Amino acid sequence: MTSDEGAPAAARMLTVPDDVAGQRLDNFLLTQLKGAPRTLIYRIVRTGEVRVNKGRIKPDYRLQAGDVVRVPPLRLAPAPEVPQPGAGVSRDLASRIVYQDKGLLVINKPAGLAVHGGSGVAWGLIEALRVLRPEAPFLELVHRLDRDTSGLLMVAEKRSVLRELHGHLRDGHMEKVYVALLVGRLKGATHNVSAPLLKTNQGTERIVRVSSEGKEAQTQFRVIEHIGNTTLVEARPKTGRTHQIRVHAQYLGHPLVGDEKYGNDAVNKAMRVHGVNRLFLHARNLRIRFGAMTEDLYLTCPIEPELEAVLESLRRAQ
Predict the structure, then answer these.
(1) Residue 122 has pLDDT above 80, yes or no
(2) What is the DSSP letter of 82?
(3) How many Å apart are CA 219 and CA 273, to the nearest integer?
(4) Quick one: how many helices (H) and strands (E) in the chain?
(5) Of the four, 25, 154, 192, 270, which is 20 to 30 A from 177 by CA?
(6) Could you report how far apart the first and last alpha carbons of the chain are, in Å?
(7) pLDDT level of residue 79 (50, 70, 90 thresholds)
(8) At what angle do helices 87-95 and 125-132 cross, to 10 degrees?
(9) Could you give phi then psi for residue 205, rounded to 5 degrees?
(10) Cα-Cα-Cα-Cα dihedral sign, residues 152, 158, 163, 168
(11) Model confidence over 237-282: pLDDT tens digits?
(12) Domains of the chain (ranges plus CATH)?
């Protein structure tokens, strides 16, 4: 909707600060016009109600520091109330902060918590962090972890840090190491899997499978220990595709223990006696250099106590 009774009296002229430079115009407008649907954003840009430096512009234009954006007055329906994370969740996340400096926050994400709201989830980790830190002007996910995966997750506190780390992810200049428990005894010490992955939808569920039509994906698996009829491994993804470690493990013929989407249902059921009630996948190590750092930042986060308890139960049963 355009300007109407009860709407602001005049358009706003906003100067783009340094920390917003590089953001797409449509995403910038979504943050300025809370509750506005994306279709409305595109329409007001297309009709010229939004201007940058007094000229018409496309929604995918990347803003530059010093640009002046005309944001038209709009009357929007009040946004529906969204359930907010409880104080207990925010306190737990505060205790899980592993690193915070130079515009980067790294948190040990618990299993069972989505990284963001959507797809039937009212809120996730990023929304809980924003409740915990209402004074923070910028908090955005650098990457994602599956809901049932625990471990190191990066959150940018500056747009410049977000852009730089996204570049490192694209270029492979970041090392991430996961610990996973595989079904069966994986032979050999190391396996380098190079198998393209394709995302498909089956109803409302997203499925990833190996396909020649997919995007390049590479993962290295290194055996740590054989425990009964399972194999504890380090997994080092060289690319960052959705469900990559889980699908590559399935491709090897050794899916992850506790994986309800790509795993073995019979094995998962049998593993409950050992305390398996989640996906056995944990983001343990992170190595990165950014900004003015002269040495690599190396972070580690031991596996969660419930996963360690599973390993101890399996060792006793050997």
Answers:
(1) no
(2) -
(3) 30
(4) 8, 15
(5) 270
(6) 67
(7) low
(8) 90
(9) -100, 135
(10) negative
(11) 999 999 999 999 999 999 999 999 999 999 999 999 999 999 999 9
(12) 12-71 (3.10.290.10), 87-156 (3.30.70), 174-317 (3.30.2350.10)
